[in-house]
Design brief:
Helix content of chain A: 55-70%
Strand content of chain A: under 5%
Radius of gyration of chain A: 35 Å
CATH class of one domain in chain A: Mainly Alpha
Shape of chain B: elongated
Helix content of chain B: 40-55%
Distance between the termini of chain B: 56 Å
Number of helices of chain B: 6
Largest sheet of chain A: none
Oligomer: heterodimer
Number of strands of chain B: 7
Order of helices and strands of chain A: HHHHHHH
CATH architecture of chain B: 3-Layer(aba) Sandwich
Largest interface: A-B, 14 and 15 residues
CATH superfamily of chain B: Glutaredoxin
Largest sheet of chain B: 5 strands, mixed
Strand content of chain B: 15-25%
Strand order of the largest sheet of chain B: 5-4-3-6-7
Radius of gyration of chain B: 20 Å
CATH architecture of one domain in chain A: Orthogonal Bundle
CATH topology of chain B: Glutaredoxin
Number of strands of chain A: 0
Number of domains of chain B: 1
CATH superfamily of one domain in chain A: Cytochrome C biogenesis protein
Shape of chain A: elongated
Structural class of chain A: mainly alpha
Structural class of chain B: alpha/beta
CATH topology of one domain in chain A: Helicase, Ruva Protein, domain 3
């Protein structure tokens, strides 16, 4: 960009512009970190830590690939507040999570529960690997056990061969 | 036996292709969630009515199948849906109740005076708590409750004429008949 004949102002302006960009990036990062509004936070640090841990495991249903701890969606905020309400009321972590699952279903859990419907999801890859390994093992063993043997021709084959040779010779 | 083994990849391909075709079928949105409340009792709620002094509550709606529609004046898809709701109320005489989700009452009132009011009664869910209890994750959402107050169906997003004809009205007929 800084070719000859261009105003040097562009070059001199480079440093502050770079700083602006850096500030903007840092601001974006800080916004990311502050999805949890300070007003939502509980005064008890132990309870707040539990709330944060639970929130990180719950899916925001609006954005669907973010946890409610990271999401700025209104609904995520509502659920964060609900989680804190349940904890303040003295509910255990499991009971709190269950109250959210009762409303939104298993999909709200970022870590799907292990149950018959999700066995394929949890154990499918391991099962496939086991099948593959067994297959490979069997194949390798058969290859090493069975040596290359040249079988003698049967009478029928011998007769055909001779006939073909005779035909080819004529 | 060997030859069957060679057919295995083809077989796998067919199975996968069928699965993908099913998952990509037209009219299917994978982001629409099934409600966790289907065939369970609807969460209890008692909301101040938008007009007058009464309330709208779950227990007050028992006794007949009802349709509950979450809406808001700030919600654009609700405006798209509104003519369908008007038709449901006026022509089909569906017992349709509204819940104004996270909306200022004066805004809801203005919205309804502008586009018409299809609801028999409207509850004001100012902080969205009733929506949260229903497992709603946006507006509009429409729930069908049977006479015992159980959730039988949820529609996410604006109701279309086709959805109403194909799903909502037949369901209400079944519920009324049983």
């Amino acid at each position: 960009m800084a070719g000859p004949g261009q105003s040097p102002g562009g070059v001199r302006g480079g440093a502050p512009r770079y700083r602006t960009l850096l500030t903007a990036c840092l601001l974006l990062l800080s916004a990311q970190a502050l999805a949890v509004d300070p007003r939502e936070r509980l005064t008890d640090p132990a309870l707040e830590a539990r709330a944060r841990a639970i929130s990180a495991e719950l899916r925001c249903l609006v954005c669907q690939n973010e946890s409610i701890d990271e999401s700025h969606a209104d609904l995520a905020r509502d659920i964060r507040v609900l989680v804190r309400e349940r904890l303040t009321a003295g509910d255990s972590d499991t009971k709190t999570v269950q109250s959210i699952v009762d409303r939104y279903g298993d999909f709200v859990l970022l870590r799907p529960p292990v149950k018959p419907a999700t066995w394929l999801l949890w154990f499918g890859p391991a099962a496939l690997l086991a099948v593959g390994l067994t297959g490979t093992a069997l194949w390798l063993r058969r290859r090493s056990v069975a040596p290359e043997t040249s079988k003698a021709l049967t009478q029928e084959e011998q007769r055909k061969l001779e006939q073909l040779l005779r035909e080819g010779g004529s | 036996m060997r030859r069957l083994l060679y057919l295995l990849p083809v077989g796998l391909f067919v199975v996968l292709a069928l699965y993908f075709a099913w998952a990509l079928r037209p009219g299917h949105d994978p982001r629409v969630l099934p409600s966790a409340l289907i065939d369970k009792e609807a969460p209890a709620f008692e909301l101040a009515a938008l007009s007058g002094t009464g309330t709208l509550s779950r227990d007050g709606l028992r006794g007949q199948p009802v349709v509950i529609n979450f809406f808001a004046s700030w919600c654009a898809p609700c405006r798209i849906e509104h003519p369908v709701l008007m038709r449901l109320a006026k022509q089909e005489k569906i017992p349709l109740y509204g819940i104004a989700y996270k909306d200022k009452p004066e805004d809801s009132t203005r919205f309804l005076s502008q586009f018409g009011d299809p609801y028999r009664s409207i509850g004001v869910d100012r902080d969205g708590r009733t929506g949260l209890d229903f497992g709603a994750y946006g507006v509009p959402e429409t729930y069908v409750l049977d006479a015992n107050g159980r959730v039988r169906k949820r529609f996410v997003g604006p109701l279309s004429v086709e959805t109403v004809e194909r799903e909502l009205l037949p369901l209400l007929r079944t519920l009324a008949g049983s």
